[in-house]
Design brief:
The complex is a heterodimer. By secondary structure, chain A is mainly α. In chain A, about 95% of the residues lie in helices and about 0% in strands. The longest helix of chain B has about 30 residues. The chains are: A mainly alpha, B mainly alpha.
Chain lengths: ~40, ~325
């Protein structure tokens, strides 16, 4: 397997493995941002 | 004669998302007027009905995309792990969690050795009944494809059945044995696998039953990642003819377990305010609700008819381990 093909395969696997973790972290970040904005508005 | 081989018709991925969204909306609407019935019952129930309808309509290949909400919910659950919860439960409580885990692991390992249960199904029972519930079973089924189908269905139904039995029987046991509210809450939190049934059962008693049951659920959930890894290690790696050394090889830790650990450590270090924790907890409940609709959709209740014996073994072992935990609470812990 060519190095770039292998790198792409590894990247795809890593994304599949951690996509839901990334989504969860994005949601948590959104909650924190929302609370921060709500705190500033209040 | 010309024979044409047709590939089974597969639905467009967007169609699966739309179906999932519709069933989730209907299940949520049904849950609103009856909040006393746990959400897990509505999610799984409507999922099962929709899946049966799809198969009857010749759409048996349709798969709902529930893996992402399931594992994302698992990761977000880490935000509920706080030092206060561990303080409330204390070392004695952690000992209780360890005792329950030891009982279910040993009990189901013995059942496997006696050929009462296949190894993977025993592992699913042990995982679910250790307090981790239906969500953990769905999570490992995504990792260990050998349990998708009948084993996952049987284990899910047994966990749900045990929860339903506990909702009715636990208050009667509490009354008959004269359990105080703290002991009853600990008993319900430790031995009822699904959060909703556990809290509903504890809610039948006065304070601090509900608070303690909730604390125990959070503590057990905090160790859910470890339980998943233990399942993969002890029950999923067994194959005929495998060398003992190969059996002991540690499994690769799933990405969502690592994610859960990162969020859990952040929560322990005080990364979340109470308002943030409440908001993330709401998102977690939504994620599991969506995921359990998907789990229900692929669940075939007709498979249960062929699995009555293992289901009964699972229920009996749950009852035995719960009984031993109660004995420990009454006579050893004091």
């Amino acid at each position: 397997m060519k190095p770039e093909t292998r790198a792409r395969t590894l990247a795809r696997r890593a994304f599949a493995e951690f996509s839901s973790t990334l989504l969860a972290l994005a949601l948590i970040a959104a909650v924190k941002a929302w609370q921060l904005l709500a705190g500033q508005a209040g | 004669m010309i024979v044409t081989l047709q590939k089974p018709e597969t639905a467009h991925p967007a169609a699966a998302v739309v179906v999932l969204a519709i069933v989730v909306a209907v299940a949520k609407l049904a849950h609103l007027p009856a909040p006393g019935v746990p959400g897990v019952v509505w999610a799984l129930g409507f999922g099962v009905l929709a899946g049966h309808g799809a198969r009857s309509a010749g759409r048996g290949t349709l798969q709902l995309p529930y893996e992402v909400p399931l594992t994302a919910g698992f990761v977000m659950m880490g935000a509920e792990v706080t030092p206060e919860v561990f303080r409330l439960v204390g070392w004695n409580g952690l000992l209780g969690v360890g005792l329950l885990w030891a009982l279910v692991i040993v009990g189901f390992a013995v059942a496997t050795r006696l050929r009462l249960l296949p190894s993977r199904l025993a592992g699913l029972f042990a995982l679910g009944l250790s307090g981790c519930g239906v969500s953990a079973i769905a999570a490992v089924a995504k990792r260990d494809r050998a349990v998708e189908g009948t084993p996952q269905t049987v284990a899910t139904m047994v966990i749900m059945g045990a929860g339903a039995v506990a909702l009715v029987v636990y208050p009667l046991i509490g009354h008959a044995l004269g359990l105080d509210a703290a002991t009853f809450g600990t008993f319900a939190g430790l031995t009822i696998a699904n959060n909703a049934e556990s809290l509903a059962s504890a809610g039948t008693r006065e304070d601090p039953a509900l608070l303690l049951a909730a604390a125990y659920k959070v503590v057990v959930n905090a160790f859910e990642g470890l339980a998943v890894v233990l399942y993969l290690w002890l029950f999923a790696s067994r194959r005929r003819g495998q060398l003992p050394a190969a059996k002991l090889a540690l499994p690769r830790v799933p990405g969502f377990v690592l994610g859960f650990t990162v969020v859990g450590v952040a929560a322990l270090l005080g990364a979340f305010s109470e308002a943030e924790r409440q908001a993330v907890s709401g998102l977690t409940r939504w994620a599991f609700f969506i995921a359990l609709v998907g789990v229900g959709f692929r669940t075939r209740v007709d498979q249960l008819r062929r699995s009555i014996k293992p289901a009964l073994v699972g229920l009996l072992l749950w009852a035995a381990s719960s009984g031993l935990v109660l004995w420990w609470l009454l006579h050893v812990r004091g």
